[in-house]
Amino acid sequence: MGATTLTHVTTINPNNTNIHGPVVDEVEGLIRVYKDGHVERSQVVPCVGTSLPLELGVACSDIVIDKLTNVWARLYVPMMTTTTVSKLPLIVYFHGGGFCIGSASWSCYHEFLARLSARSRCLIMSVNYRLAPENPLPAAYEDGVNAIIWLNKARNDTLWAKLCDFGRIFLAGDSAGGNIAHHVAARLASTELKPLEIEGTILIQPFFGGEARTESEKRVGNNKRSVLTLSSSDAWWRLSLPRGANREHPYCKPVKTKSSTVMMRTLVCVAEMDLLMDRNMEMCDGSNEEVIKRVVYKGVGHAFHVLGKSHQLAHTTTLEMLCHIDAFINHYEPFN
């Protein structure tokens, strides 16, 4: 598998207003956009290489998907045992970060996805898609679709592909990545992918929005203890949507369609203390429980599974969520 250059990270420089003009938008401490279009991102999470503890039993490497757009992915492969006879499902994962920050090489995602691969006995391809505002939506959706198309081309050319059941692909992601997984699934619903098949989606606190405020948005507001606040949520949408669009744009919403082809199996993971709770709950309302599974995790907030590992409740709840994802993929029923 080929290596690739990981994400370019810069540190916010307070003196750059002299070079690039005034700051026109920002999420404090995370991203700053200048009048001339220059973008700076803070290195809030370290980027790491592909190494993993041997005892985890997961191999990891980076693969190039599109040299032209510099889209790449990090691949996690559970080490096969002599008793393993069947091929393994594949999770195509999209990281969070408001469409504007984040990387498949962030240490928090590297650790979480390695644990998920080991727990669920799945291959995982974590896509490092293009970021806004340099590449506003639908660029990330296009990168997701292209990653699936790339899979169809690569399935006969790589060693790891021999372990993969391409008829059992799950699209997954958290926060903005959950939004991407959902919209990529909708875009692929009418596309002929055989022998590939998208079996389901796994949406972890998916990032949706609207102009009207929900009760959970009002409750969390701009509480600085929350990873996602109302002001940062609004800023992520301003930076990622097409020019002139507001939060009623279709990219901010779950896809509504009467077509049964889009009604694939879906697991929605909701955090009780998350600003997005109401929107996540709403997307499941009125749906067939056999098609859409909803799990609410008590006492935790946004991105608890990747940013809350120092807190015991977040750690315990993450283990619970890993169990639910495993059960969803492998068709057994731990849900109460």
TrEMBL record:
Indicate the residues that form the catalytic site: S175
Which residue ranges does the record assign to the Alpha/beta hydrolase fold-3 domain?
91-305
Taxonomically, the superkingdom here is: Eukaryota
In the record, the note on similarity to other proteins reads:
Belongs to the 'GDXG' lipolytic enzyme family.
Question: Know the name of this protein?
Answer: Probable carboxylesterase 6
From which source organism is this entry?
Camelina sativa (False flax)
